[in-house]
C-alpha cells in the first residue's frame, strides 16, 4: 500500500491531508516557505510507518508549488504535479459540493490513491537556472514594451524618465541574455542539446533557450505525442453521434509559454526549413486558414526538435519522414 498525501498549495500556506489505510485522514496546515516544508516532511515521516512508500500529490499552481515540489523531490519523496483541470473533473465526479482548502487537499489525496498519477521529475540544476532566467527575460521584455507604449503618449515632462527606465531595462535584458548564454555553455548537457537544436532551420538564439528550459530532458516524455500535448498543440476534437463533429483548434491544456515560443519560429521555418516549407505550401494549396497552417507547422517543428534531441543527431531533412506522412 502506498500512502497518499494531498497538498493544496496557496501563496502563504499548504493544506496537507494524509489518507490512511483505513480511509481516514490526518490534516494539518503549514507555511509555504522552507521552514514549513521541513515541518511538513517531518509530519509525513512521523505518520508513515517505517519502510512504507508515500506519494505526494499537488496541483500545478504557477510558481507557488515549484519550491515545495523541488524540496520534497530532493529529499527522496515521490511527488506528482497534476493538471488542476483533471482534479476539478475528479472532484465533480466524486460529488463534492463544498470547496475548502482542507477539502481540496483530501480530494487530492483520494485522486492520488485512485489514479496513481505519474511521478514528477525535477529538472537539473542547470535547467532550473535556465528556467528562472528565461522567465526573468520575458518579464523584462514585457516591462520594456510597456514603457515603450507609454512613451508614445507620455507628456513631455515624463518622457526623459521613461527613456531612463527603458535604458536600464535594456541593460538588464542584455545582462540576463548573457547569463542565459553562460548557463548553457557551463552545462555540458545543455550545450550539447543547444548544438542539436541549432541545426534546425527556424530555431535561433531567442527560441532555443526557451525550448531547453521548457522541455528539459526529452526522455521525460514517453512519446512525441506527449510533448505535443504538453505544449498545448494537440488538436481539440469534439464528436458526439452524428450531430457534432468539430475540430476546434488546439487543446487549452498544456504549457502555453512553450506554445507561444514556437509561433514566430514556425513562421520562419515555413520559409527556410525545407520540410516545413513544403508542408506549409501543401496546406496552403488545400485552402487551410492561416492560423491553422501556422499551428500545424508549430506542431511539426516541435516534433522535429523532439526527434533531434531524442536521437542525439543533428537535423537532416533526408533522414526524416515527409511532413504530413
Strand order of the largest sheet: 3-2-1-4-5
CATH homologous superfamily of the largest domain, by name? Answer: ATPase, nucleotide binding domain
Structural class of the helices, strands and pairings? Answer: alpha/beta
Reading the helices and strands in chain order gives EEEHEHEHHHHHHHEEHHHH
Tell me the major beta sheet. 5 strands, mixed
| Percent of residues in beta strands | 5-15%
Helical run tally: 13
Q: What general outline do the C-alpha atoms trace?
A: globular
CATH topology of the largest domain: Nucleotidyltransferase, domain 5
Number of E-type strands: 7
Summarize the amount of helix as a percent range: 55-70%
Average of the residue pLDDT scores: 88
Total domains: 3
Unreliable residue runs: 237-247
- Rounded to an integer in angstroms, the radius of gyration calculated over CA atoms is 23 Å
* Assigned CATH architecture of the largest domain: 2-Layer Sandwich
Q: In the CATH hierarchy, what is the class of the largest domain?
A: Alpha Beta
The rounded distance between the terminal residues' Cα atoms is: 45 Å
Amino acid at each position: 500500500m502506498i500512502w497518499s498525501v494531498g497538498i493544496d498549495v496557496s501563496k502563504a500556506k499548504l493544506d496537507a491531508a494524509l489518507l490512511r489505510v483505513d480511509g481516514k485522514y490526518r490534516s494539518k496546515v503549514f507555511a509555504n516557505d522552507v521552514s514549513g516544508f521541513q515541518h511538513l516532511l517531518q509530519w509525513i515521516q512521523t505518520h508513515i510507518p517505517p519502510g512504507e512508500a508515500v506519494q505526494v500529490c499537488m496541483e500545478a499552481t504557477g510558481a507557488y508549488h515549484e519550491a515545495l515540489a523541488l524540496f520534497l523531490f530532493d529529499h527522496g519523496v515521490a511527488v506528482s504535479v497534476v493538471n488542476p483541470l483533471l482534479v476539478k473533473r475528479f472532484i465533480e465526479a466524486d460529488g463534492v459540493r463544498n470547496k475548502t482548502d482542507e477539502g481540496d487537499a483530501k480530494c487530492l489525496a483520494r485522486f492520488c490513491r485512485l489514479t496513481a498519477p505519474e511521478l514528477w521529475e525535477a529538472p537539473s540544476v542547470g535547467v532550473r537556472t535556465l528556467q528562472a532566467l528565461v522567465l526573468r527575460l520575458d518579464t523584462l521584455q514585457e516591462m520594456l514594451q510597456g514603457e515603450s507604449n507609454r512613451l508614445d503618449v507620455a507628456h513631455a515632462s515624463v518622457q526623459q524618465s521613461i527613456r531612463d527606465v527603458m535604458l536600464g531595462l535594456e541593460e538588464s535584458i542584455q545582462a540576463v541574455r548573457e547569463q542565459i548564454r553562460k548557463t548553457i555553455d557551463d552545462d555540458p548537457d545543455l550545450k550539447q542539446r543547444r548544438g542539436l537544436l541549432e541545426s534546425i532551420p527556424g530555431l535561433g538564439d531567442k527560441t532555443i533557450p526557451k525550448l531547453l528550459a521548457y522541455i528539459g530532458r526529452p526522455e521525460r516524455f514517453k512519446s512525441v505525442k506527449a510533448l505535443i500535448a504538453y505544449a498545448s498543440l494537440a488538436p481539440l476534437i469534439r464528436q458526439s453521434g452524428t450531430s457534432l463533429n468539430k475540430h476546434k483548434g488546439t487543446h487549452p491544456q498544456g504549457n502555453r509559454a512553450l506554445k507561444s515560443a514556437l509561433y514566430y519560429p514556425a513562421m520562419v521555418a515555413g520559409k527556410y526549413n525545407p520540410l516545413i516549407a513544403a508542408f506549409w505550401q501543401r496546406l496552403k494549396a488545400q485552402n487551410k486558414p492561416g492560423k491553422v497552417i501556422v499551428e500545424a507547422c508549430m506542431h511539426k517543428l516541435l516534433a522535429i526538435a523532439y526527434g533531434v534531441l531524442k536521437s542525439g543527431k543533428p537535423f537532416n531533412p533526408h533522414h526524416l519522414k515527409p511532413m504530413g506522412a
